[in-house]
Design brief:
The protein is of the alpha+beta class. Helix content is 49%, strand content 15%.
């Protein structure tokens, strides 16, 4: 029998803590902010976290982390489809030698943290727990310590909230504010995430959702990059061209939130 409740009565953190401490087995589904998250527990261990957000699927996460080439992902998805999806994507990639066990474990942990942090900040919703339900054989399974992941996700959620407060309105276009002759030199002096933002804005102004969709960076990394570049004066909104410069870099904000 399924247990149903409101996330306003039981937070994501409360639910995960109870299921872990009571060593429950089953599927926890969270519906909030127009997105569904599924978490599978086996005797209190978190063995899988999945999201309806296509950007958070394991293949895309591997590409985003630089662990897999896009061409290899497409080939692996084709192989998986030919097997009628009876093999997990991770197993296909491991068999071909395109990733290692450590790569897969690292990505599954990052995927779980990213999904959890988004679920924790998405607002009101409902949850359903189906006791005894387990994963099928076509899903990547990797036992994860739920309370450890929860702590990291809570820190990331706090950092993201701090970053979001410093970002422009999500509907406001962001412009490149660097002369073409100076762009190459600037890209050599900043980090990889800032280089990605500069490259995207080189083709024209973009809003935050557009940058998030096209950059393949997680929201925290993207937010830090955008704020850092804004404080350098390298990118701006139309309103910021006459505004007082912000104080403190995006990287400092992210570090401060974890203290």
């Amino acid at each position: 029998m399924a247990t149903i409740g409101e996330l306003s009565d039981f937070s994501v953190a409360d639910l995960m803590t109870v299921l872990s401490q009571r060593k429950r087995t089953g599927r926890l589904i969270l519906k909030s902010g127009g997105n569904d998250v599924a978490m599978f527990f086996e005797e209190g261990q978190l063995v899988r976290v999945s999201s309806g957000d296509i950007a958070l699927r394991i293949g895309r996460m591997l590409v985003r982390q630089g662990l897999l080439e896009t061409s290899k992902l497409l080939e692996a998805l084709h192989i998986q489809a030919e097997s009628n999806n009876t093999k997990p994507l991770g197993e296909v990639l491991l068999e071909r030698g395109w990733i290692t066990d450590a790569d897969l474990q690292r990505c599954l942990e990052e995927q779980s943290i990213e999904i959890l942090s988004r679920a924790m900040s998405s607002g009101p919703g409902i949850f359903t727990f189906d006791g005894g339900m387990t994963l099928d054989s076509s899903t990547d399974i990797s036992p994860l310590e739920p309370l450890v992941l929860l702590k990291i996700a809570e820190e990331r959620t706090a950092a993201l909230a701090l970053i979001q407060d410093r970002l422009p309105n999500h509907l406001t276009p962001i412009f490149l504010n660097v002369a073409p002759a100076e762009l190459s030199e600037l890209q050599l002096s900043v980090g990889p995430s800032e280089v990605i933002v500069l490259s995207l804005l080189r083709t024209g102004p973009k809003t935050w959702p557009e940058l998030a969709a096209q950059s393949a960076l997680d929201e925290l990394t993207l937010g830090v990059a955008v704020i850092t570049l804004m404080e350098m004066g390298s990118i701006q909104t139309a309103a910021q061209m006459h505004a007082t410069p912000l104080h403190g870099t995006g990287r400092q904000l992210a570090m401060a939130s974890a203290d």
